[in-house]
Amino acid sequence: MEEIKDPNCSYCAKGDLVNAFAYEICELPASTVYVFREQTHPGRCVVASKHHVSEIVDLPLEEQHAFLADVVRVARAIHEAYHPDKLNYGMFGDTGHHLHCHLVPKYKDQAEWGGTFLMNPTPNKISDEEARVIADRLRPLILNQK
Fold this sequence. Notes:
Strand content: 15-25%
Strand order of the largest sheet: 1-2-3-5-4
Order of helices and strands: HHEEEHEEH
Oligomer: single chain
Shape: globular
Number of helices: 4
Structural class: alpha+beta
């Protein structure tokens, strides 16, 4: 499937649009992986499809599998680096119609345990330097999986 892009979409346009809320970690076969700047849940990431589609069912079966394989790959890296008690997965997009999945590590003794995670629970977002540290920690765990 040829990559579908929308120049008005943050994930498609990249650059300043996506940098407002995310920091790129790496490219995978079907997606781009980002550190989500709101880090109430340490290690929170977003896996964004390389195709501008709203729903996973809008992708051919092979692309669906590739996208979900990328999500699993990032999930393994978060588990290895952060050891969450539970990893929540959120695929929303009511207003931003680009297929993406939030991977949100949750811990029994920390924020929002036992409930649904909030998109932006605090107004504090991490800096580029803080995001780079997280990206540098996760990148080799994501890219070097067998």
